[in-house]
Each structure stands twice: as C-alpha cells, then as structure tokens.
Write a structure and sequence with these properties.
mainly alpha, 9 helices
Length: 221
C-alpha cells in the first residue's frame, strides 16, 4: 500500500511517468463502456426497442432495465464472432506475452474496424475523412478509429430511425382509425389513445411482434 502511495507522492521522474500512465488508464476504463457502445450493435438495437415501446404508447412497459438487458444480450449474440476474433488475435497472444501491448491494440482493432466498416455508409465516412483532411485509404485498416467510430455511430442512428419509422406506421393507422370512429360517434372528449392501446397490443401480440423485431435486427447485421 505504501509503495502505491509513493507512486503518486514521489518526485522521481519514473514515478511521475507511472502516475500519468495510471491516470490515463483509469480515464480510458471510465470511458470504455461508452466507447464499446458506439462500436457495437447496441445503439441500433436499443433505439429500435425504444421506438417499439413508444409506438405502442405503453408508457414505461417494458421497463428501461428490460430493454437495456435485451439490447445487451442481443449485442453479445451479434458481436460474438467479432469478439472471438479479438480474443484469438489479440488477448490470448498478449496474455501469453507473444506480442506487445501496441501490437495487441492493432490486432484487436482489425475485427472491430471490419465490423463497423460493413455497416457504415460511405457518405458518413467521407464526411469525417474530409474534415480531418485524410487521403483515400488503401484499406479499411488504414482508417483510424477516431474517424470510423463517429461515422459508424451516425450511420447506426439513421438506420435505427428508419426502422423506427416503419414500426410506427401500423400503430399510427390504428390511432387514426380509432380517432375517426370516436369523432363520428361524437365522443370527442374521449382520448383515442385509451381506446387504441388494447388494439395495438392485440395486433402486436397476434403478429408476434417481438419475434419480428428481433429477426429484423439480427438479419440487419
């Protein structure tokens, strides 16, 4: 314990360098969850599931914890082959001291870059490459993560909102039909949402909505 304290309290240049490295490591670890979220399928899945709940107008059902849990496990399922490559190409050789930390970073970034590039629109990638003044790369591996990650993120947002729009359409038709019937019956004071909610839930259950949504998400990757 005293040695750990001395790392931060000593004036030796070596101790200062070690302190800076530890500080940077803690910073990276605190940002790691957010970075991983933007580099995987998690963003698209969670947004689409949130659109489903909003279109059903069921307020907080399913709860946020359930949606996040489903999105997390679907992400693990979709990203399993990519994570397996990272483990075999980077982590195992690093733990066996066969490669250095820098080489492990390069090896780990390759499968992630391939996954993100496959689902990134060229227009989005070109935006960040032009802003940073990059020349046209010869391969995907030459694109830095600082350019590929934001391009992948906005591509995923666009795809998720497109899927959300398609999910909204059938439920919007039900709301409009119910509102028209209520107005024709003179029940203008009765909120259409209260009447349309059971019909939307019934429709969603009859078509096995959760299966269709999960199938669409899996086939999208």
């Amino acid at each position: 314990m005293n040695e750990f304290i001395n790392i931060f309290s000593g004036s030796d240049p070596e101790n200062i360098a070690t302190s800076v490295k530890l500080l940077l490591l803690l910073t990276v670890l605190s940002l790691a969850p957010g970075i991983l979220i933007l580099m995987t399928s998690f963003t698209r899945i969670l947004i689409v599931l949130s659109f489903v709940r909003t279109s059903l107008a069921t307020q907080s059902m399913p709860p946020n914890q359930v949606l996040v849990g489903i999105a997390l496990f679907l992400t693990f399922f979709i990203m399993a082959p990519t994570f397996q490559e990272v483990n075999e190409q980077a982590l195992i050789p690093l733990f066996n001291e066969e490669i250095s930390l820098n080489e492990a970073y390069e090896e780990a970034s390759m499968p992630m870059k391939e996954f993100m590039a496959k689902h990134t629109r060229q227009k989005d990638l070109a935006l960040f490459m032009e802003y940073s003044g990059m020349e046209r790369p010869e391969s995907i591996q030459e694109i830095p993560l600082t350019t590929l990650v934001p391009a992948f993120a906005i591509s995923e947002l666009k795809t998720a909102f497109q899927m959300g729009f398609m999910i909204f359409i059938p439920f919007l038709v039900i709301d409009m039909a119910v509102a028209s019937v209520l107005m024709s019956m003179g029940m203008m004071m009765l909120p259409p949402v209260m009447i349309s909610l059971p019909f939307k839930i019934l429709l969603f259950v009859l078509v096995d909505g959760w299966y269709l949504i999960s199938k669409s998400l899996l086939e999208g990757f």
